[in-house]
Amino acid sequence: MIARYIILALSLAALAIGPTDAFAASVEVIATSPDTTDAGVRANPILGEDRESGSESHRYSFIHYNANRICLNGADWSGLRHILKDAAAGHGTLDIVHIGDSHIQAEGNTSRVRRHLQRRYGSAGRGLITPFRLAGTNQPTDYRITSSTSFASAKLMRTPWHTSMGFTGISLAMPGSAVSFNISNAQRFEQIVVYGRGHISVTAVTAGSTEIAFDQIEVNNATLVVLGHAVSACTITIDAPGGNIYGFELRHNDHGIRYHAIGNNGATFSQYNSIGEFGASLRQLAPDLVIISLGTNEAFGKISDEAFMRQIDALVSDIRTHNSDVNILLTTPSECQRSVYTTVRKRRKRRRRVRVKRVRSFAVNSNIARLRSAILRYGEQHHIATWDWYDVAGGKGSSTPWLSAHLLGGDRIHRTWAGYHLEGDLLADALDAALSGKAIINVPASSTAAEARDYNTHSTADKPSTSAKNHTSTVKKSRSSKKKYKSAKSSKKRKKGRRRRRR
Predict the structure, then answer these.
(1) In the predicted model, what is the mean pLDDT of residues 174-191?
(2) Whole-prediction pTM value?
(3) C-alpha distances out from residue 46 to 108, 233, 274, 408, Å
(4) CATH number belonging to the domain at 26-124+253-463, selected among 3.90.640.10, 3.40.630.30, 3.40.50.1110, 2.60.40.1190
(5) Can you list the positions of beta strands (E) in 349-487?
């Protein structure tokens, strides 16, 4: 019995000390592969509560602020500048449509762009709002669309679609009877545009228990509802038997900026290309400028540069064909990371048992840089303006400081609200500069990115003047010569002392 206790005690002591020859393990890495579940993460971003930050974002050392410019690549934006000037003076609207993926659906970035531009040039209303929540997905925080009715719905990334798909990427199938939608928004509105398919008839509009007088007009396959007075919330009852609802547009004034966002979790260029008559439907928003922010989701699949550029061309051509006067801005995705699984085989010495496990880690998604270059190249070749968000955000290796600064989320793909607000502030500044004519860059984006990067590293604010440089170099030379003289003098003294001692 005593012998058993002694053996047990020795065994426990060996384990406490650490691995010995008897218990040492050999670890062998078998394989490393990307995590195929990234697609699920991208389709369901978890952002938490949106807490609006101040008017200006904190400045970060890794952001290339001097690279924050739109490269026109020879595109003519003079027409946009005239429209903006008139809109600011109270004569018409400048309509911007921003198309993207999950980065756009939550509207953490586009809401900031909208706010900045409308403060500077006037607000013509919230613009497009989409019934995401009624379709079972996340919705922006500045508006609400609710209904007591349950809908059969279709989402862009859930194929096959069991009902017709709209240009918003969301479609609600209407039942045979009238349906009420409760709409509320931070901005007041006096016009509602109902987008959908089929004959759409509005039968009532109420605010609480009070009926609101309204007129309705069919315009471009949509129904325009003009209210008797401005409201921030109302209930609109719609009858569209057998039809579909794609979304609503909230308008305030007939002048200023309208900034529409069309974003869908997991979306790619090819997904928008699969929507029938997407470019034609987009015409209902009367866009003056279309911003396209895609490419992140393609980077998690297998697509060649050539195939990717064909997808870009298909979407751009479709939009241009049905919107002849529209200008287009392509943006590049910023660096993100993908999860990687390493399969490890662990064997303990003097034991036959082998343990195999998968260890999760993260690595930079190298496809982002490749597809970013393809977007810039397409813009340069087809004279389409580009905004190199990849470079502005910090370029290669930027995902690490973004993560450290709590600007990148835990999935290392989506940004936090602070990160999206920062992106929106920077895009608003770049758009404002380009639309106002303050910063017109026509050289290729690939060149401007490098120039801006160099300029950011050695900005003129930090550069000493030529005279200062000369003075500094003179001082340095004099100091170094003094040091050399002193060292030579001391070495001579040491040599003399050695000679005396030898004598």
Answers:
(1) 93
(2) 0.79
(3) 12, 27, 27, 12
(4) 3.40.50.1110
(5) 354-364, 385-387
